[in-house]
Each structure stands twice: as structure tokens, then as C-alpha cells.
Model the fold of this input.
Amino acid sequence: MNILVTGGCGYIGSVLIPKLLKDGHTITSIDTKWFGDFLPKHKKLKNIKSDISNIENLNIKKVDCCIHLASIANDPMAELDKNLSWETSALNTHKLMEFLKKKRTKRIIYASSGSVYGVSKKKNVTENTPLKPISLYNKVKMVTERVVLSYEKSIEVFIIRPATVCGYSPRMRLDVTVNTLTFSALSRKQIKVFGGKQVRPNIHIDDMCDIFRFFLRINKKYAGIYNAGFENLSILDIAKHVKKTIPSKINIYKDKSDPRSYRLDSSKIIQAGFKPKKRIFDAINELHEKYLNGILKQKLNFHSLKWLKKILKKY
Ligand SMILES: NC(=O)c1ccc[n+]([C@@H]2O[C@H](COP(=O)([O-])OP(=O)(O)OC[C@H]3O[C@@H](n4cnc5c(N)ncnc54)[C@H](O)[C@@H]3O)[C@@H](O)[C@H]2O)c1
Done:
């Protein structure tokens, strides 16, 4: 299959693309490469440095399916430049969809976010739960979903609302919960927990990538919106999990600046036939091993917010 991956050099893309190449697909990746480029050289990979707003001018031939990952990818980064957040994600997605329509692309798989539900005390936040996005990032994600869905008549639309992803990627993100707490335990022997009671769903990066591969193959009658998160845990419980594997001290700070709290119910994707294989525990162990082997290191561009702030000064 000819697959266009937007945001292919990011945290998820850097694990996903090697898997897709191994599956035998031909890949075109478009990425601004804000955080670097960690993709392997491969005869079936065309790795383009570009903003998706420029997609019409790139030499891209056939696209059977698009996996759309390009976005400003968390709450504090989205706040850095509100206009850029809307443009990068929502408006550019409109351009992307027009391009895909012209190319007669059959399917798009869009990585939205489970955070579109905002704060919810419900035990089971299913895909039918009304969206109450509270941050700019959540709002942009919700509107971008609507942009993608408005093309449903001409393209098969699969929208994933992933939990927070965890685990190792060559383009590491040290700003996502499990990774942050694990890295802090490894490098400082202490874990800072702000608040701690907020419940967040989690998904291992291998399961995240396998969901894209699963949706590439599935019958079109399954098109629709899917939650994807298989472990709902409070931040404090995640910290305790980390402490079990990596001896460290947990320090709790009173903080209400990030109240997002919700549990995802992912029964729909499981009923469609997807089986998750990994848990938070695996992510912590794998990160631990990579750290001991010297593969996982502290790098400035692994801290997305600080790094993007630096880059935006040059924009
Ligand atoms: N990682 C998570 O925990 C998580 C959870 C839920 C949803 N998501 C979503 O998954 C997607 C991928 O996330 P990630 O963790 O890999 O983030 P990431 O920041 O590592 O990757 C995003 C990539 O998109 C690129 N990019 C941004 N705007 C672009 C544009 N206009 N044109 C071309 N490239 C552009 C960036 O350079 C970056 O490499 C995002 O849409 C994010 O919102 C991620």
C-alpha cells in the first residue's frame, strides 16, 4: 500500500514508520522536522521536510491511505502560539483533506486525542460521551476531527482518540506522563507529582502503532471514532508503579494547573478485534533497560515544550 504519514518524524511516527516498512508498505513522510529526524534510510521511504500546508507543491503520486499525525501535540505547546496551533492542526488538515480527495485516497486514519473529553468523573467515557474540551489543544483536536469527518462521503474516515502514549521511541518524548515520571526516577531518583489524583488513560507506543496497522487492514464498515487507552490510572498510582521498578522517592506538590481527568472506555476497538499486547509496566521496564544501556539519554529536543519555544523564536 502507498501510505502518506504526516508528522512521521515525531514520537509515534518514528516507531510506526519502521513497522510499516517491515510490513512491506511504501511510505511518504511529511514533517517540518521540528524535533529532528530519527527515521531510517530505506528504499521504500520518501522522507520530505515540509509543512503540510505546502502539500499541493510536493511531488507525491499515489496515496492509498493517509495516517495523519502532524499537530502541535500537547496542551502547553498549543498555548505558545494560538494562531499557529489552529493553522498547524485544523486549517492545514483542511488542505490535506482537499489534497487527499483529489488523489482519490481511500482511507484516512487521524490521531485525535482522548483529551477531547476534558474533565469527566464518568466511569466509562465511551465514544458517545459529549465532548467538553477544556484546553486550546483539546479544542483544536475536536475541531480537526470535524474537518476530517466532513469528508466522510469521499474518504473512509477512522478517528482514534488515543490515551497518553508511553514507551521508548528514537524521537523520545519526555513530556508525557509515564515517560516523564520514569525518566525522573532514573536520572534523579525522585518523582515529582503535581496534584496526583487526576486519572489518565494510558497506551503503550507499540499498541498505538499496532492500532494504525489494524485500521489499515480492517473492513470499511468499521469506519468511525475509536477510543484507544487500556489502563486508567491516577498520576500518583503511575508514580507508585515506577517506584516499584526504579527505587526512588515520590514528592507530592499541591497543584491545580492541570485538572484534566478522565477514564477512557475502549470496548469498541476491542469489539472490532484489536487486542492490546503491552502495559505501562512494559514501558517502564523498557525505558529502564534503554537507560542502563545508554540508549535513552537526556536531550533538549526530547522536551517538546522547551524545544518548540526555542524554534518558534526563529519562525
Ligand atoms: N503522544 C501522545 O501521548 C499522544 C496522545 C494522544 C494523541 N496524540 C496525537 O498523535 C499525533 C502524534 O503525536 P506525537 O506524540 O508523535 O507528537 P510529536 O510532537 O512527537 O510529533 C508531531 C510531529 O508533527 C510535526 N508537525 C507538526 N506540525 C506540522 C505541520 N503543519 N506539517 C508537518 N509536520 C508537522 C512535528 O515536527 C512532529 O515531528 C499528534 O497529532 C498528537 O496530538 C499523541
